[in-house]
Design goal:
The structure is a single chain. By secondary structure, this protein is α/β, with parallel strands linked by helices. Helix content is 42%, strand content 14%. The chain contains twelve helices and twelve strands. The strands form three sheets. It has a seven-stranded mixed sheet, sandwiched between helices. A three-stranded antiparallel sheet has the order 9-10-12. Helix 1 packs antiparallel against helix 8, helix 2 packs parallel to helix 8 and helix 8 crosses helix 12. It starts with a strand and ends with a helix.
Length: 384
């Protein structure tokens, strides 16, 4: 099997798998219970909180555990809006956001909020001049995807924050970091963001657990009520095994990230080189410079259909995707690809390849060989 769909989810590392198994067996107490089993679970949660906080260079009290990136995005956006709605009703985001942001924005529009969707260029970079012109006295939130989940564009968050500051805006800055956490180097304090969402299953941890950074000066109210877990922001019994395993995944990632990132960048460059050599009439939508994630490669193959290619390759036990797996299983037309002005034919023939530390050049040799064969077979049919 060659797995190249690591933006959708990653395979748990063996050490993480062992950790979650042991946690399920040993740390089954409810952290809110006062007996020793509960106290042990609470202690293990604190350990993971410390590991992840240290990795992000934040205070432990600024980290809240959630069920994943979607919940983190929702808590951040909805709580900020609830906090500042008396001061204004204008929100700024981009046209290439993840569905968890886009659908939240659509819901807020239905409730009377005004949302500006920033344009992007052919590489997915937002229009900073448009951002500057869009900020006004009613703007309460700017929400930006840090690394785009379909094409891998890294937004310049420092410039975005500087523009907000220069306009003397009261708007808070939320960062969707689901595809940046553990994948690129950054410092949340230096970026100046107010909230930052991230997820476990994108970094070889378990599904069903994520995190939300909230700058300590900001006091957000919950959107779900219950037993006041996570210092009252996110009620519900904690996913103890998931949180413990999340901490283990971050611990390993912290040790390996530089070597793995260098390896993956080489793999991405090698993949692009081979594809350009073996397949004609293509368009690479993800660059290999430092403005793009090394983990994501988006390619348009004209006169093909991405979903057909996906199933051709699946028969060879090679797994890729066409777009974000988080939005309708990729069957709807991608708003991201439309926003970077791809033609209809290019959109139809677009695939997304996402790498991990496990991928090798041998994997890529076989992948590109089978991809080229599949493209040739499909084009024979489509060009009749």
């Amino acid at each position: 099997m060659i797995y190249l769909d690591n933006c959708a989810t990653t395979k748990m590392r063996p050490e993480v798998l062992n950790t979650i198994y042991n946690a399920m067996k040993e740390d089954f107490g409810n952290p809110s219970s006062l007996h020793s089993l509960g106290l042990q679970s609470e202690k293990e949660i604190r350990k993971s909180r410390k590991i992840i906080s240290n990795y992000l260079n934040i205070d432990e009290k600024e980290l809240y555990f959630t069920s994943g990136g979607t919940e983190s995005n929702n808590i951040a956006i909805q709580s900020i809006v609830n906090l500042l709605k008396k001061q204004g009703n204008h929100i700024i985001t981009t046209k290439i956001e993840h569905a968890s942001i886009m659908n939240t924005m659509k819901d807020l529009e239905g409730k009377g909020f005004k949302v500006t969707y920033l344009d992007v260029d052919k590489w997915g970079k937002i229009d900073l001049e448009q951002l500057k012109n869009s900020l006004n006295h009613d703007t309460i939130l700017v929400s930006i995807i840090h690394v785009n989940n379909e094409i891998g564009t890294i937004q310049d968050i420092k410039k975005i924050k500087n523009i907000i500051n220069q306009k003397d805006s009261k708007a808070l800055l939320h960062l969707d970091g689901i595809q940046s956490f553990g994948k690129i180097t950054f410092d949340l304090k230096q970026l100046g963001v107010d909230t930052f969402s991230f997820s476990s299953h994108k970094i070889h941890g378990p599904k069903g657990v994520g995190g939300l950074y909230i700058r300590r000066e900001i006091k957000l109210s919950p959107i779900v009520f219950g037993g006041n877990q996570e210092r009252g922001l996110r009620s519900g019994t904690e996913n103890v095994p998931g949180i413990i395993a999340f901490g283990k995944a971050v611990e390993i990632m912290g040790k390996n990230k530089i070597d793995e990132r260098e390896k993956i960048l080489k793999i991405k460059k090698y993949t692009i080189k081979l594809i350009k050599e073996k397949i004609e009439d293509i368009k690479i939508n993800s660059n290999i410079d430092d403005t793009f994630s090394p983990y994501i490669l988006n390619i348009s193959l004209r006169d093909t259909r991405g979903e057909v290619l996906l199933h051709f390759l699946e028969q060879k036990h090679i797994y890729i995707s066409t777009a974000s797996a988080c939005s309708s299983n990729g069957v709807k037309e991608s708003k991201v690809l439309k926003s970077i002005n791809l033609s209809q034919k290019e959109i139809e023939g677009t695939i997304r390849v996402c790498f991990s530390y496990e991928n090798t050049e041998d994997d890529i040799d076989l992948f590109v060989k089978e991809l080229a064969n599949s493209v040739e077979e499909i084009r024979k049919i489509t060009k009749r």
